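Q: Predict the assembly, please.
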Amino acid sequence: MRKSVLCLLLIAALSVVPVLSLSSCHGKGSLPDFQVPDEFDSSRNYEITFWAKNDTNLTQKNVYLQAIEEFESLYPNIKVNIRLYTDYGRIYNDVITNIPTDTTPNICITYPDHIATYTTGKNTIVPLDDLLKDSKYGLGGSELLFDGPSYDEMITKYLDECIIQGHHLGIPYMRSTEACYINKTYVDALGYDLPETLTWDFVWEVSEAAMKKDADGNFVLNGEKVMIPFIYKSTDNMMIQMLRQKGAAYSTDSGDILIFSDDTKELLRTVAEETEKGVFSTFKISGYPGNFLNAGQCVFAIDSTAGATWMGKLAPHADISPDKIVDYEIAVMSIPQFDPSDPKMISQGPSICVFNKTDPQEVLASWLFAQFLLTNKIQITYAQTEGYVPVTLKAQQSEEYLDYLSRSGEDGSLYYDVKISATKILIENTMNTFITPVFNGSASLRDAAGQLIENTVKSVRRKEYSRTDDYFAGLYSSISSLYRLDQLKQAQSGSGSFRSDLGRLPKTSAALIVCIVLAWTAIGVFSAAAAVKKKKNSKNRQ
Amino acid sequence: MKKFAVIALALVLLFSLASCQPAGEPAPGDDTTPDEKGEGVMTYAEYIAADMDARVVVETYVQAKQSWWEDKATVYTQDKDGAYFLYEMACSKEDYDKLVPGTKIRVTGHKSSWSGEVEIIDATFEILDGSFIATAKDITALLGTDDLINHQNEFVSFKGMKVEASTDADGNEAPFLYKWDGSGEEGDDLYFKVSSNGNTYTFTVESYLCGKDTDVYKAVKDLKVGDVIDLEGFLYWYEGVNPHITAVAAAK
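A: Predicted assembly structure:
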């Protein structure tokens, strides 16, 4: 008797297991679609996690901490736990690691490129389209306990930069671009006048002029053995901006990789030629451009406007000992252009994304905090820490911010002139900025763009470079392989909640499952019937 | 079961100590093989004489490991003649675990200089037979001299250094800072200033090399301005001398 019951239980279990295991392969554990709750339930307590990034800058950290304190005083039932990073890449890696276990933070500071990869987890990221325009809790909503920007008070261009796969998957937090920080004293000494708009030809020409040496092998310009006239911090940006300025292809919006082209080859040949002359290097190869600039060992240093406080003889974040800093006049200009009449520069800077959770109230609490980061006080104080600009018109047009911009040079910290000059470059060129297409894998493409330059420069320095097509074929092949760009299309088609939701099971799979269930059920029925028959026979024998 | 637990615990302790104690196993100065270079391998003098960006091949011994990240290892190494810093050398996690202090390796890469730190980059390696652990060389007297850079990356010691006040971003004096400007928190690099003969230097506890649970990390957090201490570490360079400290004790 007991054996028969056990047998039946086993059969039942066996019939269920395949169904469960198949269904688990097909999206079990993914989060539900987020629906905006009608009301925020303030009777409950929430604890949310915020992964933030600061540029090794205490003031930025303090802005975050102050924001949390003020937010918690408005919403005492929401506790915000912050985890600070100094590297976007680390946040990205940690998020990726935590997606499979549903242990992502509630909110994080990130790049749109990274958000695109986060969407490989189904419903991992909350689409903000409905939240942004929600009359109660959206931008400028009636139920907010703070004075945030309305939808119309956001800078549309920046807001649109967070549209990924057709949805707002993030909101901008700060924006920056790149600037060229110039030792104007050296440019003057070389007999050049800075043009109204910097061009690549001008930068190369002046850089070559800076290479003149005296009989002892010292550079005439600084009397030292070290001079790298032109140093670029982010070579990925360098390649991306050069291509855009040339009107050359980089990628399609849908993720086709177009960077391995003849246009790229020509740009790399120029980089190689200038490297051979000794005029060009990169951050990864030589060090921080600002350090060389401040030490009088560089003429043109290109870095983010958010690195402005490291630049200049009075830089508040100078990273070399004071005795190494030279006395020089600094000029801050837009990056070099191929066509000065049609300048183009990258828009970059941190954005914010909100992660989905099983509890929509928790998501709403996260959204409230994310939105709080767009309020004027936070926007302005954070922007003032570096050459960032606020992402809202409400902040940019405020009296307080305009006053800040007007006081350039009043001191060496809050009103540090280099920082405010860098900020103004972006404000004045907002319409000349661009972003690259965002798709799952666009972060890898960006890395590859930079690595093309890094490898070319290294090849020249190691005397392994040749202008031949064979060299570039090898370079393209190795970079494509290194960043798995050849596998991108496959990855894109196999993942992404918005791009390729697996949806319902195929009919053949469903039929197979039904057959398995029926087969095991039949086995179960026959076994049960056999057991009953056996029992009856046994009773009859007794 | 108890035996297993004891052995496991002992192994954990051993590895945690080794992670921040270059002079762990084998004993300092241990030298089980003659320091002969293989064919095509540079001597230290040849390495120093090589041009920047040149391809270099050296045989050296692991002294400490800083980090492993995406199949790249950053390692402090040294032979009897000098030291070599290996930055982001191609290395699987499995091989990284084999790189215990003393391990002899042949490294092929390119000589490079980043912010003054001479290192080998884009390197590969193979493990060889042999073992050597460097003894910390007292270079206190070389601080501030041109000769100091000749010991770059070596395992060194400093005696009788006085802790000086650092200034955080709020203008407060502190014996150490989390990160260079005090913007960090527990677990980040520690920066502190020490002086000798009237000159002040910035020393660092590199958090990847010696994390928050190591003795040196805790010891630096306990420092007071004015303390006189002895230190050991690797003579790293960043825009000037910037040793990565691995041990701190009250001056003897």
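The mean pLDDT of chain B is 89. Chain B has two domains: 2-131, 137-250.
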